[in-house]
Write a structure and sequence with these properties.
This protein has about 190 residues and is α+β, with helices and mostly antiparallel strands. It has a domain of about 130 residues. The chain contains six helices and five strands; from the N terminus they run αααβββααββα. The strands form two sheets. It has a three-stranded antiparallel β-sheet with strand order 1-2-3. The protein has a two-stranded antiparallel ribbon with strand order 4-5. A hairpin with a 6-residue loop joins strand 2 and strand 3. The protein starts with a helix and ends in a 9-residue tail after the last helix.
């Protein structure tokens, strides 16, 4: 009973009320019904963004198909999973990709990954995932030449062929250089 009275008196304090008001601006409290509803709404927005990207990739694949030589087939796939046994360390690396355009010679034959996407519905969602994304791209770039990998994807499997991820070599050095340059203090020239 004393704890409840103490809690009530603290909530009446002006400083505590200001703190609670600032804290409320960050969103609903963890574990609350409002937080659960917010999470479900965010998941729906994310799913919508992924579907929109997959639809756009399907349209791009269709345009590529119109220009492709006979026997070449472009298609969009979603939920591409990096297979077990793929070279490189899986720890803390992205291993599920939201959308990809693949190119092959038959509907169910081996493919090359032409374009790969990880979709985020907001910039705030992308920032904490950026390191995992880079590690995932670095891992994909480790694909062995003349090796086949079976990537599972939504509704099917994509059997890749002969270094399927050769184009997935990220400019990691450039990204790290840019971010480290941004973190360096700038020198100011002395005033004259």
């Amino acid at each position: 009973m004393q704890r409840l009275q103490r809690s009530a008196s603290l909530r009446a304090d002006a400083d505590v009320q200001r703190y609670l008001a600032l804290h409320a601006q960050r969103g609903p409290p963890a574990g609350s019904d409002a937080a659960a509803a917010h999470g479900r709404a965010s998941a729906r927005v994310g799913s919508g963004a992924e579907q929109a990207t997959l639809d756009a990739f399907a349209a791009i694949a269709s345009l590529l198909q119109e220009q492709a030589p006979a026997g070449t087939r472009y298609r969009a796939v979603g939920g591409l999973l990096t297979p077990r046994g793929f070279p490189g360390a899986a720890a803390k690396a992205k291993d599920e990709w939201d959308a990809a355009i693949v190119r092959g010679e038959a509907a169910d034959g081996p493919v090359d990954i032409v374009l790969l996407a990880e979709v985020k519905a907001s910039a705030a969602a992308a920032v904490p995932d950026f390191g995992r994304l880079l590690r995932g791209l670095e891992r994909l770039a480790l694909a062995e030449p003349r090796s086949d990998y079976a990537f599972a994807c939504a509704g099917a499997n994509c059997a890749s062929r002969d270094h399927p991820c050769a184009g997935c070599n990220p400019s990691v050095r450039c990204c790290r250089r840019t971010s480290s340059m941004a973190a360096r203090p700038t020198r100011r020239s002395p005033r004259r």
